[in-house]
Design goal:
InterPro entries: HmuY. The protein is mostly beta strands. It has one domain (35-369). The chain has helices at residues 2-22, 108-113, 287-293; strands spanning 35-40, 48-52, 61-64, 70-73, 80-82, 89-92, 154-157, 183-191, 194-200, 208-213, 220-224, 229-231, 242-254, 257-270, 277-282, 317-318, 329-330, 334-339, 345-354, 360-369. The longest helix has 21 residues, at 2-22. The relative contact order is 0.17.
Length: 370
Amino acid sequence: MKFLNIFSFLFIITAVQSCLSADEDPVKVPPMTGSVINADVGGPTEANQVWIDLSDSKKLVTNKRTDWDLGFYTGDDYRVILNGSIAMAVAKIPNATDINSVKESDVASLKETVQVGTFNAANMQYVDNPNGNFLTQSSGIGTIKENDADNPIYLVNLGRNLADPNSNIAAGSVSLSSDPRGWKKIQILRAPNGYKIRYADLNATNYQEYIITKDTEYNFNFFNLKTGTPANIQPKKKSWDLAFTTFTNEVFTSPGNSAGSYFYADFIITNTTSGVSAYQVTATGSLDQAYNSFKLSNVDPTKLVSNDQRAIGDKWRTTTGTNEVPGAFVYADRFFVLKDAEGFYFKLRFNKMKDPQGNRGHASFEFEPL
């Protein structure tokens, strides 16, 4: 009898261990306490993109903004995004059917309009929809079609190089870019479980080709047209919640009057592709009191923004200031609620965007799980 009891006990232990080892997707546990995160975007040139997972806040992923040009979606659809952090733009080349035959003289007039920051509402067609809804956008690069001949040849404005970090940048100012990175002509086709990209300089008569296989652990697989190589940029799908970056946004001269695409500093995007959402809480009275007393029971799920990656965007700071408080500074009357891809809630408040000497590009925020 005693032998049977021992045998049963060992059997149960073995069964439990077997179940645990077979669980390839364990439940993710949020951090028990909050933290302060310093997002090093590289000072006033803001050369870096910084990707942050609030559930693993000690592991920040950073890349140079010029490390990539195109992002290839890994889901069922075939869509491609531009690197808006370096002000890229793109347009179909009219009547072009052979990438090798396209010459710079064929696109001379197009080059004048395929730009960011021209204060023309029409130039929004040349950039990705800034809300991040790339699957339904009618701008930028269109859906990659099954039939090769249905995929157009595009003129790609590669944006601008990073500014010299050793240049003399006044305190409180930014210098986000320098010389243009040039132009490419591209055509993107479907490949088995991925994409085939053809690319070349404008006057080249022989294109280069690269196959990009969808890695579904990530939202996008990235490619650098300058080096002709893939690039590791975003963390895995559910391993980032928000990112600090420069950003191509839409600017308005007045409510409802668009001035087209414009390049923003000190911007934050949320991972809406993986289901991250957020909203702003405006404090009345003391921000400290409002933030510290905010609990999970205070969350209003109806306010969560899940269809726009700009839910935080530029709402956490101002770059113009007022007569009373001149210059760029973090707003002191608001904080944010974020729901991550796993369904956990956090509250965030931004503390600074400059170092003690007044140099921009040194952001810091604190957060707590709810």
